[in-house]
Design goal:
Number of domains: 1
Distance between the termini: 15 Å
Structural class: mainly alpha
Largest sheet: none
Number of strands: 0
Helix content: over 70%
Shape: elongated
Number of helices: 4
Radius of gyration: 16 Å
Strand content: under 5%
Order of helices and strands: HHHH
Length: 99
């Protein structure tokens, strides 16, 4: 427990990025079975959590790409952001070390 609070600046952003990344993958998987305008509360939650990342990726990707492809790219960019965050803190000497 003490290690978490010692490195909160690493763990909290990493957790948020991981949650968004896995929610993007869940939205992609669920999207194969439901329509984009489905009004279920779970689908609305998936969309509410992932829409900021999807809008950001949609702004930089070609408009010919379909929504599932944009979701895949959003998940990949989120994974890249997690890895980059780790290496930035590692190079700064602020990342948690394995004991």
């Amino acid at each position: 427990m003490n290690d978490f609070w010692s490195y909160w600046y690493f763990h909290i952003p990493n957790f948020v990025l991981a949650a968004v990344m896995y929610t993007l993958l869940g939205r992609l998987a669920l999207g194969f079975f439901v329509h984009e305008t489905w009004d279920n509360y779970i689908w609305r939650a998936f969309k509410a959590i992932t829409d900021p990342a999807v809008r950001l990726v949609r702004a930089i990707t070609p408009s010919v790409l379909t929504q599932p492809v944009v979701l895949i790219f959003a998940a990949l960019w989120t994974m890249v952001a997690r890895i980059a965050w780790y290496f930035i803190l590692l190079n700064a000497g602020l990342a948690p070390q394995a004991s």
